């Protein structure tokens, strides 16, 4: 069984290389994120490369099993990105639910999505022929609410695909109850919120499936990578069929045998039982993921420590920054900064840049205002007032485990300075040369 501890020989090979080739420094005093890979991640990837197999091998199976166990879920299916995880989840619902059953989602069915989320929460809904319906968000939590979802429902609604934004859990228990009452399928996009929980229950386990991203800036990183956690082993099979070509090769032995017995005239090595994609991950990614998964509690503790200080610094200035409501189970992907009316996001962004603080708009803003929506059949559920606040007045600054005490203190000072400048009406504030950069590739422990 593959595990998170590469043999010493690989560690010995990696250490001198890392010493000889130091990482490039970031141009930012506070980059959005830093590389968390230690020697063990690189040694594990190297081992996969040297010893093989390199794709859908034992490390992928071990990473899936460890991830499912961490979520108290019967199964988890690894793929090559969070966007692919979203596509797989929607594809599974839109494909036949068994050899003799129709799809759970039919073309033209409506699926409620948040108006504020990443683009690839919404695209897969349209890509499988369904109609995304944009529900408003609360700018104080950045998430959809029970009321905004209720407003988005119609007789054509079949599913809710919500996202937990920036690590902050949505009111998921109430939304799960609503879905149960209305007979709706619930899928959670947890790409920004690994390890967020509500009363100890992990986000991603409240509905039929939960999706995760292991992209560079996320809670754990496999360079690129994604996971779908599911509550029904049959969905695990469907996800694996969709993930690789529509074939049965990667199914657990009993399901594989069941399919093969239905089609004795087809060579089981190339037995295609549905349409599908190639969204396969590699064993290199899984090897890295196994190490990162073991380190995630330490990562989360660091994120929470920085988040507590930065939220307090932000909330010292309620005339400048909108008060936020963050659930105790947040896993703090980033620090949201939502300006009060009359203050300008561009000024905040420019101020942060001048002070060496890398920043981003709050994911895709109000998705209804993105030009791509012209090309996607969708419905907008009432005025997107909260989403417009996020679109016009919100930014975020990265939280990551590589933040030192001085970095945490530095942003507190920058926020104080911005608030003073904004209140004095000199919004842009003074120019300030950023200090020496953190290594963007620096090892974070
Ligand atoms: C909410 C959400 N969903 C999906 C994704 C897509 O993940 P990936 O970049 O791994 O494709 C992201 C990416 O950041 C995200 O924030």
Write the topology of this structure.
Elements: H1 8-20, H2 39-51, H3 58-70, E1 75-79, H4 82-94, E2 96-98, E3 101-103, E4 110-114, H5 119-127, E5 131-135, H6 146-152, E6 157-163, H7 172-182, E7 185-189, E8 197-198, E9 201-202, E10 209-213, E11 226-230, H8 233-243, H9 253-262, H10 283-315, E12 334-338, H11 345-354, E13 359-361, E14 379-380, H12 385-393, E15 394-398, H13 405-423
Parallel strand pairs: 4-5, 4-6, 5-14, 6-7, 7-10
Antiparallel strand pairs: 1-11, 2-3, 8-9, 10-11, 12-15, 13-15
Helix pairs in contact: 1-2, 2-10, 3-10, 4-5, 4-8, 10-13
The structure holds pyridoxal-5'-phosphate (PLP).
Pyridoxal-5'-phosphate binds near residues 86 and 363.
The shape, in one word, is globular
Helicity, as a percent range = 25-40%
For the termini, the CA-CA separation is 26 Å
CATH topology of the largest domain: Aspartate Aminotransferase, domain 2
Report the uncertain regions: 428-445
N-to-C SSE string, H for helix and E for strand: HHHEHEEEHEHEHEEEEEHHHEHEEHEH
Count of helical stretches:
13
Computed structural class = alpha/beta
- Please give the order of strands in the largest beta sheet: 1-11-10-7-6-4-5-14
Radius of gyration equals 23 Å
CATH superfamily of the largest domain: Type I PLP-dependent aspartate aminotransferase-like (Major domain)
Structural features, described:
By secondary structure, the chain is an alpha/beta fold. The protein folds into two domains: 22-286, Type I PLP-dependent aspartate aminotransferase-like (Major domain) (Aspartate Aminotransferase, domain 2, 3-Layer(aba) Sandwich), CATH 3.40.640; 297-423, Aspartate Aminotransferase, domain 1 (Alpha-Beta Complex), CATH 3.90.1150.10. The chain contains 13 helices and 15 strands. Strands 1-11-10-7-6-4-5-14 form an eight-stranded mixed beta sheet, with helices on both faces. A three-stranded antiparallel beta sheet has the order 12-15-13. The longest helix has 33 residues, at 283-315. The model is unreliable at 428-445 (pLDDT under 50).
